[in-house]
């Protein structure tokens, strides 16, 4: 028996990194998982691999640049499965080359990042919540970022957009708790995805890890396990929470990284 037997889940941008691991973890725990993806061939390949272990997953089309697909994605899941129990809004991003600080950052990129990252949570939730209400409840898990609560020297658009996702999470939680719909957000720290590791020097890695009490990068599985917890009945009395999964990054005094006693 899995924690999610009989549940129907949708994970956006589920073909790589955190999204992919979340798909696998939810499927391994009994859910039928729909992978919202632009690259349907990649999503179908993942579904075929999971099927070899008798796990169930299906691909649905989702393109973050095409607003209409936010609605059609959710509706395709409901039309096919008859319901939606779990929504994991994993999509989010920015153009790191242009999303810098206030003065040097590109203004168009700032507003485009804000629009896309908030829209990718707002619209799927707006479409999914009425279906969840009809079904007697559900769980929404939004993937935010530790940068939403800890200001950075760059990526101002990304950080502000994820702070907005946190507020949106809290508002949805309060507004639909009476319908037994829970909504929580996860704030990943620096996660060792291929994309992240390819853009970091060893010098940066060494300095960064000095400020992580658990002394390691997070793995996609660390985030996926948190997704599973919030999606399942293990967290049935938790809603509106903004959960950091960052190895303690940002918790200690700023002097922590300079502590030579360790």
TrEMBL record:
Which CDD domains does the entry mention? SDR_c
Transmembrane residues, as ranges? none
- Where is the secretion signal located? none
Query: Which Pfam families does the entry link to?
Result: adh_short_C2 (PF13561)
Domain of life of the organism encoding this protein: Bacteria
Key word Lipid metabolism present in the record?
yes
Q: Which UniProt keyword terms apply here?
A: Lipid metabolism, Steroid metabolism
Q: Which InterPro entries does the annotation name?
A: NAD(P)-bd_dom_sf, Sc_DH/Rdtase_CS, SDR, SDR_fam
The record, for NCBIfam families, names: PRK07231.1
**What's the family?**
Belongs to the short-chain dehydrogenases/reductases (SDR) family.
Entry protein name: SDR family oxidoreductase
Please tell me the species this chain comes from: Romboutsia faecis
Q: What is the lineage of its organism?
A: Bacteria, Bacillati, Bacillota, Clostridia, Peptostreptococcales
